[in-house]
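Q: Sequence in, structure out?
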Amino acid sequence: MNDAPQTPAQSVAAGPDPAPPAPPLADGLKVESLVGVSARRGALVRLAYRFCWNLHDAEDMVQNALVQAAQHGAQLADPARAWSWVRAIVVRQCHDLRRRARRVVRADEVLADRARGTAAPASPHEVAARGELSERVRQAIDRLPERQRTALVLHHLEEMPYAEIAELMGISESTARVQVRNARENLRRVLQKLTEPRP
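A: Exactly. Output:
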């Protein structure tokens, strides 16, 4: 039996974790629906991680989303949509976290680039967690407009079909396709700038 601790990447990819006790449910959201969502907590953590790239923040966002779902369950007209609804809450939580971080730290991009260049090397755990995407690609995705970034992550990293992306984002399927296409085009441009040699 291997008792070695898991890396963040292994934790994210390992699948469902034991679900914590579910928060009190509001009328309108059936117990079975939230339990089904909680059982897939690992998938929610992975989704959140795609947006914030920090395992602890991802876990916090998922916990916040489950609590919010329990508190506002009466707003969900169709309990069968609980899974899609909670995923949408997770994505909103991640966007809110990003906005708060921008308000707290409004550093110039040049200073941020310099800081990244002089930062201490990442720990082996951090390196493992970032293994699926290069640092440059992560930076490029982070620079996309919010809706494009969301559509791109959901389609290419979470492998969601356009219809599911449209439902989660509250847009039409054709708009979801446009957002993904525009995100890809912008991503190419951003990556080109990031890879251009500096004078």
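Residues 26-106 form one domain.
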